[in-house]
Inverse folding.
């Protein structure tokens, strides 16, 4: 039986009464701009993730912007205009924009079609004398082989950065994704693992990066820094130090409400990730029923942002028909992030090296989609998906 109502949504709220109480606490305080709630959430997040520092931003996209800007301007940085940064060809747009915006050059590398993450075997082919960094992306909850990537970056003298916005709570070799490089970004947008409405963070063990991000986050001033710091020492005159601008910064500050929500949501994250992983385990029981549909291969412990589907063999080229069928079943779906980002018209405005063959990114672009995963048991929804995919396989066998 088919109907047009949504029976398997892409995302759902993770809030209960506690989050509304947190919002009311901030309202009652009368303090709405970044303050103590944000500071407490940053400290709690850093402790949870196993990092020395965490800096909150007003979105995960802003976290990427703040990280790239700080990596460019931090004391002792090797990143200079014209240097190349290796990126996977499949990610969200704001993985790429900050690189261009800071006069760096995008160097696209193809993905592994099974994991959907950057193909480690292709990275070395992309290296040039101008390559200075890798901005790895852990896609749809699935961490890259981060231990191997960290070792490679160290061996080649490259900065490793992580866009972990879709993969909060994922681990590899017992370590949280987002903590393997100089800095890692996280998103707390509505559809992600925890939600602070809008919001994002950067985790780092590097105090210089941390201090540089705190300046860049708020206008490039020194107000939020200690008197002695790695960016620009204060004069010690409190009034004189209010408006001292030292870096080309932004206003990327979060709100107190977002900090308060983060504290509440973080307490629930372990349970959220547990259910997401259990849902994935349940779905994977059925994968042999679909020989022409490839599910994402897990590395380490994925936090399973969603469930990707790549059509292959007899189903190749039939994504539109599958989307129509899923709609009839009431199952929402989306492209795999941006697909092959290099196919977007905006590329003409971005600095990038000559594009290599991006065969797997193209496969995800034309034959890929994903459906949602949630923070609660969803066997009924997965059974519905299995019914739809079974019908599709049978029809096109």
């Amino acid at each position: 039986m088919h109907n047009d109502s949504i029976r398997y949504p892409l995302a759902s709220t993770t809030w209960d009464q506690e989050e509304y109480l947190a919002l009311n606490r901030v309202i009652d305080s009368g303090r709405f701009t970044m303050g103590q709630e944000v500071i407490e959430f940053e400290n709690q997040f850093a402790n949870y993730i196993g990092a020395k520092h965490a800096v909150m931003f007003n979105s995960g996209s802003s976290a990427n912007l703040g990280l790239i800007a700080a990596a460019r301007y931090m004391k002792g940085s090797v990143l200079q205009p014209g240097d190349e940064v290796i990126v996977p060809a499949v990610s969200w747009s704001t993985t790429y924009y900050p690189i261009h915006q800071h006069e760096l050059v995008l160097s696209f590398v193809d993905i592994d079609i099974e994991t959907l993450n950057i193909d480690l075997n292709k990275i070395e082919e992309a290296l040039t004398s101008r390559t200075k960094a890798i901005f790895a992306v852990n896609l749809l909850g699935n961490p890259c082989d981060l231990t191997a990537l960290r070792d490679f970056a160290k061996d080649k003298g490259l900065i490793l950065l992580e866009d972990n916005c879709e993969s909060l709570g994922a681990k590899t070799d017992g370590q949280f994704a987002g903590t393997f490089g100089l800095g890692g970004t996280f998103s707390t947008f509505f559809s992600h693992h925890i939600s602070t409405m809008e919001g994002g963070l950067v985790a780092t063990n590097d105090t210089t990066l941390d201090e540089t991000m705190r300046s860049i986050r708020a206008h490039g001033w020194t107000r939020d820094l200690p008197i002695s710091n790695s960016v620009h020492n204060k004069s010690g005159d409190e009034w004189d130090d209010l408006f001292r601008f030292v870096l080309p910064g932004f206003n990327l500050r979060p709100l107190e409400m977002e900090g308060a929500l983060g504290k509440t949501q973080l307490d629930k994250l372990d349970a959220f990730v547990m259910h997401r992983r259990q849902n994935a385990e349940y779905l994977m029981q059925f994968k042999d029923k679909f020989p022409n549909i490839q599910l994402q291969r897990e590395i380490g412990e994925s936090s399973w942002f969603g469930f990707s589907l790549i059509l292959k063999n007899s189903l190749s080229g039939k994504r539109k028909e599958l989307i129509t069928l899923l709609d009839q079943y009431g199952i929402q779906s989306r492209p795999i992030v941006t697909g092959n980002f290099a196919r977007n018209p905006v590329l003409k405005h971005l600095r990038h090296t000559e594009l290599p063959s991006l065969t797997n990114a193209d496969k995800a672009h034309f034959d890929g989609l994903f459906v949602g995963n949630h923070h609660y048991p969803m066997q009924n929804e997965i059974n519905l998906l299995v019914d739809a995919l079974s019908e599709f396989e049978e029809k096109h066998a």
